[in-house]
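Lab meeting, item 3. Inverse folding demo.
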């Protein structure tokens, strides 16, 4: 699949969203590139994030995760569709032995900087636990074709090479977020993580690297 990245368009997004900062502007730009490709995001699926900083009411700098919120389509997402959540609160949750979906949603919602923001994606912790500035997640059709088979590892490695981690299907939520973070730490030079019967996680220091 060819890359749709275009330097002029990226620059235009940076100008248009100047008030939100370049990191978030480029996050919006590449989120839309993913969202406009139906083979990547069936039925509006997929979510994206960027780690950056914000200031609290006292002017203190905070590390935040801007992650896709529910109710917006990646193809048309605006900066407001990627609400900011305090990263320290999210990262701390990884130490818990277990976390119900209900407690997870509540903990994530309570770490929002704006109480009126939409609920962050159910895959928020997965984005938070990975160390990269940019994380892209799609439910790409090609990944489903490769992994909806008896031996997904063989098919994925034949198509994408052996520098891609393949995990079995795991229920989305806290267990999946921990499993992906653990898998990345075991293979820190991998290019991406494939979740069998689910989709693909890619990441990078820049919006372009993660997207491509
Ligand atoms: Zn997913």
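The presenter then showed the designed sequence:
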């Amino acid at each position: 699949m060819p890359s749709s990245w275009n330097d002029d368009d990226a620059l235009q997004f940076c100008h248009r969203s100047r008030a939100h900062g370049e990191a978030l502007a480029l996050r919006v730009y590449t989120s839309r590139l993913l969202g406009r490709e139906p083979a990547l995001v069936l039925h509006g699926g997929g979510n994206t994030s960027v780690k950056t900083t914000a200031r609290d009411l006292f002017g203190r700098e905070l590390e935040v995760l801007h992650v896709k919120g529910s109710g917006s389509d990646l193809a048309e997402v605006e900066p407001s569709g990627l609400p900011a959540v305090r990263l320290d609160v999210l990262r701390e949750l990884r130490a818990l032995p277990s976390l119900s979906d209900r407690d997870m949603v509540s903990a994530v919602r309570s770490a929002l900087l704006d109480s009126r923001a939409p609920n962050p994606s159910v895959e928020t912790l997965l984005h938070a636990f990975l160390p990269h500035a940019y994380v892209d997640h799609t439910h790409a059709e090609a990944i489903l074709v490769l992994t909806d088979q008896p031996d997904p590892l063989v098919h994925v490695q034949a198509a994408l090479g052996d520098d891609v981690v393949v995990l079995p299907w795991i229920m989305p939520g806290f267990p999946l977020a921990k499993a992906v973070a653990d898998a990345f730490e075991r293979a820190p030079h991998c290019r991406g993580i494939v979740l069998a019967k689910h989709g693909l996680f890619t990441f990078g220091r820049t919006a372009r690297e993660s997207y491509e």
